[in-house]
Amino acid sequence: MVRPSLISRIKRWLGASKPRKLVLVGGFAMATLAVTSFAVAQEPAPGAAPTAAPAPAGPAAHEGAPGAPAAEGKHEGEGHEAAEGHESGHHGIEPFNFADFDRYKKEKEEVDAKKRDAAVTPYIYVLINALVLFALYYYLGRKPIMAGLKARRDAVAKELDEAAQIKAEAKAKLEEYSNKLKKLGDELERMKAELTLAGEKDRDRIVKEAEEKAERMRKDAQFLIEQEVKQLRIDMLKHAVLASSAAAEQVLKSKLSSADHDRLANEYLGQLAALPEPGAKGAMKGGAS
Amino acid sequence: MTYAKIARRYARALLELGAEQNNLETLVKEISAVAEAFTSSAELRAVVDNPEIPRTARKQVFVEIAAKLGCGVTTKNTLSLLADASRLRALPAIATALREEADRSAGVVRASVTSAQPLGDAYIQKLTQALETRFKKKVVVVKNVDPSLLAGVVTRVGDTVIDGSLRARLDELRTQLLPA
Asked: CATH for B107-177, among 3.30.460, 1.10.3720, 3.40.30, 2.60.40?
């Protein structure tokens, strides 16, 4: 039953605002200090004598030296027995002095008279000192601490904003990449189709160009062959004509007789008479041929 | 270097001299003989072309050649004049021009007749008559032989050529057969 309550309180505390946390921490510190100071105030000063009568027993009895175990066991066991121990002269817890200034004064006189070692300070002094200390802390440290806390809060808020922004950007990126990943398949298909189409176009273009080039080369080769054949035919014809002409000349040289010479000379005379008049068109060179 | 204009002027002068002295044909023959000697003799051409030979010595050489050829005074004087004027190189052109001028003045046409074999006198006479009929002038035939004609006759009158040779027929046939 206690644990859920304690856990819920801790959760509430953890969920509280910073000023409230400060107040809670400060109250807890003050309570701790009060309890501690109360305990210190109850602690007898070293060598302090019992209030009712001077302690017959020495430091040995106070420290629980061997020989007094029974009495010490009684002090720690029960409160009324402790009161009895004081009355019987044993060393024990003195009554709490909250604000008894007369008692403090009396104990100071006993200390001066060397009847006791120290006087029990009124607890109100300790409390006042603590309050003054906390007031000084509050007065001197409130502004710097608050400013530091505020700066830290701003820095943390800024970091939180940045973190939120980064988170939002990362989320957007995540969403973008998720969408891209989702569309990646479609994109790949589209790119594949485009590349295939472009490749087919290139293939068609290259094939067409190659065919055109081949056609041009074929026509050029055809033309070249025709020219070569034509030139060869001309050369062969020239050769044949020259050879036949030379052969004919040789035959004529060997076969011509004086009668042939006379016949040609006489033919020349006949042709000379048949030529057109000098100055007329076609009169001359080779006219008798 | 051609001497056509110079030769024509000298030829006209010689023509007038020949006409005055009534020995034009002789003069033409003498000038032609010296011109032929000049054309056929390399030494004689060297004498004309060599500038180291004095003009008087050059003149003397040609006068002596004319004397050996039996040329008259007019021919010798002509050669002396040509030597003094350094026109001896024009002698062949002068001879040709003189022949042409003499033929023109006499109304004669000179025909160069070339054949593969020597032509007989009867044929030359017929050819002369045929040419005179054609050109309506007196024709003097100069005969030449060129075996490369194979057969037939080629006549040249001035710028006119009448080719009846077998060579011409063969050439024409070859030209017709050969592609353009």
From this structure: 3.40.30
What are A207-244's pLDDT values in tens digits? 999 999 999 999 999 999 999 998 998 888 889 888 99
Residues of chain B found within 8 Å of residue A230, distances taken between Cβ atoms? none
Contact B170/A245, CB-based, under 8 Å?
yes
CATH: 2.60.40.10, 1.10.520.20, 2.160.10.10, 3.30.2350.10. Which one for B4-103?
1.10.520.20
- Chain B neighbors of A267, CB-CB under 8 A: 164
DSSP H or E stretch at residue A252 = helix A123-255
Residue among B135, B153, B173, B176 with most chain A CBs within 10 A, to mutate:
B153
In this predicted structure, which of A70-84, A150-164, B10-24, B97-111 has the lowest mean pLDDT?
A: A70-84
Contacts of A55 (CB under 8 A, 6+ apart): A49, A61, A62, A89, A90, A91
pLDDT higher than threshold 80 for residue A10: no
Mean pLDDT of A54-59: 40
pTM of this structure: 0.46
DSSP count for chain B of H helices, then E strands? 8, 4
Asked if the structure places residue A6 within a domain, the reply is yes
Structure tokens, B144: 């030449």
Tell whether the model's pLDDT for residue B91 goes beyond 60: yes
- Angle made by CA atoms A266, A270, A274, in degrees to the nearest 5: 160
Residues A258-282 have pLDDT tens digits of 888 889 999 898 888 888 766 554 4
Reading the block at residue A149, the tokens are: 């806390």
Question: Is B131 in contact with A272 (Cβ distance < 8 A)?
Answer: yes
Tell me the shortest Cα–Cα distance from A228 to chain B, in angstroms. 15
Structurally, how many domains does chain A consist of? 1
Q: A78 lies in which domain range?
A: 2-55+69-147
